[in-house]
């Protein structure tokens, strides 16, 4: 389905951004650290999702649909939730539909609209992938104590709030 099986694709970038000398001093270094963290997170996600032949964006759509009322949402809502354009979401839904993981259905509340529904195969795939991804996350988190993990989580939650506010105001 996706190119997620190429786990090593990020390796050259990881080596480049892993150099602490490339970080800016002070609080601006935060963005370099976040970029580096993001690349390592992408590598972990690719590693965990490769056997399931899903990109993280596709996995995210399946998980969002699992949690949605009636297991369905309009594509525009899915795009908003994963911070993608509606055009990009159309391509994601097309790939998931070709794989039999989702289907499109008419939106009864909007004659021109469609809803994306997760299929039983999509449910199973999302659950199996979630198990694999959980094991990868647990492997990484085992290197932190509970207090460290909580502090990082709280700080990132605050930064996420700031970024969401900045995005909504621009």
Radius of gyration: 18 Å
Q: How many DSSP E strands? A: 3
Q: Given the helix and strand composition, which structural class is it?
A: mainly alpha
Per CATH, the architecture is Orthogonal Bundle
Q: How would the global form be characterised?
A: globular
- Uncertain segments are 2-7
Q: Record the strand order, biggest sheet.
A: 1-3-2
Distance between the termini: 34 Å
Question: Mean of the pLDDT scores?
Answer: 88
Number of domains: 1
The proportion of strand residues reads 5-15%
Count the DSSP helices: 7
User: What helical percentage do the residues reach?
Assistant: 55-70%
Largest sheet: 3 strands, antiparallel
Instruction: Name the CATH superfamily classification.
Output: Winged helix-like DNA-binding domain superfamily/Winged helix DNA-binding domain
The CATH class turns out to be Mainly Alpha
Describe the structure.
There is one protein chain. The protein has 170 residues and is mainly alpha-helical. 63% of the residues lie in helices and 10% in strands. The chain is built from 7 helices and 3 strands, in the order αααβααββαα. The chain has helices at residues 11-17, 29-49, 56-67, 75-82, 86-98, 120-141, 146-169; strands at 72-73, 102-107, 110-118. The chain has a 3-stranded antiparallel β-sheet with strand order 1-3-2. A hairpin with a 2-residue loop joins strand 2 and strand 3. It is globular.
């Amino acid at each position: 389905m996706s190119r997620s099986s190429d786990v090593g694709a990020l390796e050259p970038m990881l080596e480049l951004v892993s150099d602490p000398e490339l970080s800016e001093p002070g609080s601006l270094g935060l963005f370099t650290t976040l970029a580096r963290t993001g690349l390592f997170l992408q590598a972990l996600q690719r590693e965990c999702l490769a056997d399931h032949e899903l990109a993280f964006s596709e996995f995210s759509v399946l998980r969002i649909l699992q949690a949605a009322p009636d297991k369905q949402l309009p594509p525009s809502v899915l795009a908003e939730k994963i911070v993608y354009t509606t055009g990009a979401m159309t391509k994601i839904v097309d790939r998931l539909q070709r794989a039999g993981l989702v289907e499109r259905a008419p939106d009864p509340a909007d004659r021109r609209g469609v809803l994306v529904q997760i299929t039983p195969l999509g449910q199973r795939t999302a659950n199996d992938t979630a198990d694999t991804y959980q094991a990868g996350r647990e492997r990484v988190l085992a290197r932190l104590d509970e207090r460290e993990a909580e502090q990082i989580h709280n700080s990132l939650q605050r930064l996420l709030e700031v970024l969401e506010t900045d995005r909504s105001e621009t």
